[in-house]
């Protein structure tokens, strides 16, 4: 069946809204052992295991000082699904288009190319493909420096005009 996601598709990271960034970092880094790979001041941080750019994103952009969501409400910022290659990402983009699902955005993060949308419950979803780690943007000290650049979705589709995932 050609409408199924490729077998190599997996969840790559989770991005959580938090009330207190330092408290969240203390838990995910101090208690669970994830390493902070990048921090954006008092508002956001990215954490990982094994040197990956990030498995967990934490932010206070919409939730600084907030209480947890009440029972029965969603709370994830987004889930992320890592596709094995750009052709697979193009194929899922075509299925999103065919279903009439609007996008929230798309971005080239330097480490990856990503498409953002919402599921039927309005939970955020990221569909993405990673670049080779040797090409990730780094500063003069070798520290990871993800970016937020335009991702040309039409160029993605044009590069893979007839690809069907299996």
Features of this protein?
166 residues; alpha+beta; 3 helices
Describe the structure.
By secondary structure, the protein is of the alpha+beta class. It has a single domain (10-64, 73-159), classed as 2,3-Dihydroxybiphenyl 1,2-Dioxygenase, domain 1. It has helices at residues 21-31, 86-98, 153-159, and strands spanning 10-17, 35-40, 44-48, 56-59, 76-82, 103-108, 112-118, 124-130. The longest helix is centred in the middle third of the chain and has 13 residues, at 86-98.
Number of domains: 1
Structural class: alpha+beta
Average of per-residue pLDDT values: 88
Taking all Cα atoms into account, the compactness measure Rg is: 17 Å
Note the quaternary state here.
Answer: single chain
Number of strands: 8
So what's the CATH class? Alpha Beta
Helix and strand run:
EHEEEEHEEEH
Helix content: 10-25%
Strand-helix topology:
Layout (H helix, E strand, L loop, with lengths): L9 E8 L3 H11 L3 E6 L3 E5 L7 E4 L16 E7 L3 H13 L4 E6 L3 E7 L5 E7 L22 H7 L7
Parallel strand pairs: 1-4, 5-8
Antiparallel strand pairs: 1-5, 2-3, 3-4, 6-7, 7-8
Summarize the structure.
The chain is an alpha+beta fold and 166 residues long. Helix content is 19%, strand content 30%. It has an eight-stranded mixed sheet.
């Amino acid at each position: 069946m050609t409408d199924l996601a490729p077998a190599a598709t997996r969840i790559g990271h989770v991005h959580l809204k938090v009330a207190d960034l330092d408290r969240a970092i203390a838990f995910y880094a101090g208690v669970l052992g994830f390493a902070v790979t990048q921090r954006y001041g008092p508002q956001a941080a990215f954490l990982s295991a094994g040197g990956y750019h990030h498995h967990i994103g934490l932010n206070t952009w919409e939730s600084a000082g907030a209480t947890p969501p009440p029972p029965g409400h969603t709370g994830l910022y987004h889930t992320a699904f890592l596709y094995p290659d750009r052709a697979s990402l193009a194929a899922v983009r075509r299925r999103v288009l065919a279903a009439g699902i609007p996008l929230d955005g798309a971005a080239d993060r330097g480490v990856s190319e990503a498409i953002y949308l919402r599921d039927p419950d309005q939970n955020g979803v990221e569909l993405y493909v990673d670049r080779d780690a040797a090409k990730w943007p780094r500063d003069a000290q070798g520290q990871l420096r993800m970016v937020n650049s335009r991702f040309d979705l039409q160029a993605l589709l044009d590069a893979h005009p007839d690809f069907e995932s299996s």
